[in-house]
């Protein structure tokens, strides 16, 4: 663990994500026109047209990567007014335009909070706006205070303030590996001066490496009460949420071949939802936003060129479209040779 923390400290010093038009403005405009409302609400059209802290965080990050200050400010205004309403300074996760009140679940979702903080820091750095940076710092401190669970040498990122702890569940603590936005963690450590963020990073990587040794792609919900295993009451699947894990590793520069091997094997034929116990395909996925994840791993590990049809962007549904843009931005910055 000490060796891994040392390596992560080096990453913290070396990795400062650039935000200067990493995302082509024309691609962002297509996304913005379809998914970002005039009031700054980012719509999840795969989930009943609701919005959530994740969609707002992704919208903020993509706006920053595209250099769109106006849209960033609009998305942030909605986020602050409608979601950042909890006493602990975190965001309520679910907002439904067809419900009264609009917030239908005031619990937070830690990945959404982390994306918002990371995007605020991105904007504060890119545009020399200390107000955004200060807001990112405070939100990061709130995340650490409310959702970090220290146990021995490990520090776990809990999915929410309530519902997943040992007190809440017989198999608790329960975590979600896809909530580790790896590129953001060392940035939060540097921003706050709190090295527990690096312990969260190390714990997440140790978990993924343990799963890789068992040739298991990360399931979405895992009990870490004893040996990590799929959590009770959830499908034991490498599913829609978990498919972000290899992308987050790639974006953070942590895509070691052994760590990515289970994901590549699971997607040997095409992107899919996979049962992690039987390794059987539950659902094949054909959207370009999913297919580019497979292509990105091949690019990073083998130098394989990205297929021509995946280099351009046309919005489909919110989630795969978001993954598509995040991958294109990452490829442009890190793997231009494959483009």
UniProtKB/TrEMBL annotation:
Signal peptide positions (record): 1-21
Keywords of this entry: Carbohydrate metabolism, Cellulose degradation, Glycosidase, Hydrolase, Polysaccharide degradation, Signal
EC numbers, comma separated: 3.2.1.4
Domain of life, source organism: Bacteria
Pfam families given in the database record: Glyco_hydro_8
Matches recorded under InterPro entries: 6-hairpin_glycosidase_sf (IPR008928), 6hp_glycosidase-like_sf (IPR012341), Glyco_hydro_8 (IPR002037)
Cytoplasm as UniProt keyword: no
GO MF annotations in UniProt: hydrolase activity
SUPFAM superfamilies for the chain: Six-hairpin glycosidases
Reactions this protein catalyses: Endohydrolysis of (1->4)-beta-D-glucosidic linkages in cellulose, lichenin and cereal beta-D-glucans
Tagged with keyword Mitochondrion: no
Enzyme class at the top of the EC tree: hydrolase
Family to which the UniProt record says this protein belongs: Belongs to the glycosyl hydrolase 8 (cellulase D) family.
Name this polypeptide is given: cellulase
Native organism: Bosea rubneri
């Amino acid at each position: 663990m000490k060796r891994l923390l040392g390596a992560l400290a080096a990453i913290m010093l070396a990795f400062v994500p650039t935000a200067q038009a990493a995302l082509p403005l024309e691609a962002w405009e297509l996304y913005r026109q379809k998914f970002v409302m005039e009031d700054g609400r980012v719509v999840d059209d795969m989930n009943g047209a609701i919005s959530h802290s994740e969609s707002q965080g992704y919208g903020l990050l993509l706006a920053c990567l595209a250099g769109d200050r106006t849209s960033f400010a609009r998305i942030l205004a909605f986020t602050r007014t409608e979601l950042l309403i909890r006493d602990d300074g975190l965001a309520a996760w679910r907002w439904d335009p067809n419900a009264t009140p609009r917030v239908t679940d005031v619990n937070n979702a830690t990945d959404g909070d982390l994306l918002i903080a990371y995007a605020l820091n991105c904007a504060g750095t890119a545009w020399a706006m200390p107000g955004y940076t200060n807001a990112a710092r405070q939100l990061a401190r709130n995340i650490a205070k409310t959702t970090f669970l220290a146990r021995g040498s490990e520090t776990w990122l809990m999915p929410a303030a309530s519902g997943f702890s040992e007190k809440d569940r017989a198999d608790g603590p329960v975590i979600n590996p896809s909530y580790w936005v790896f590129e953001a963690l060392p940035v939060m450590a540097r921003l706050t001066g709190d090295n527990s963020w690096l312990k969260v990073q190390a714990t997440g990587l140790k978990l993924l490496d343990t799963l890789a040794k068992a040739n298991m792609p990360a399931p979405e919900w895992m009990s870490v009460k004893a040996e990590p295993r799929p959590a009770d009451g959830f499908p034991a699947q490498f599913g829609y949420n978990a498919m972000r894990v290899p992308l987050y590793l790639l974006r953070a520069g942590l895509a070691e071949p052994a760590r990515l091997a289970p994901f590549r094997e699971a997607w040997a034929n095409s992107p899919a939802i996979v049962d992690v116990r039987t390794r059987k395909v539950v659902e094949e996925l054909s959207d370009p936003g999913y297919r580019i994840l497979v292509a990105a791993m091949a690019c990073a590990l083998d130098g394989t060129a990205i297929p021509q049809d995946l280099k351009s962007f046309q919005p489909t549904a919110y989630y795969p479209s978001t993954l598509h843009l995040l991958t294109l931005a990452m490829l442009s910055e890190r793997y231009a040779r494959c483009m």
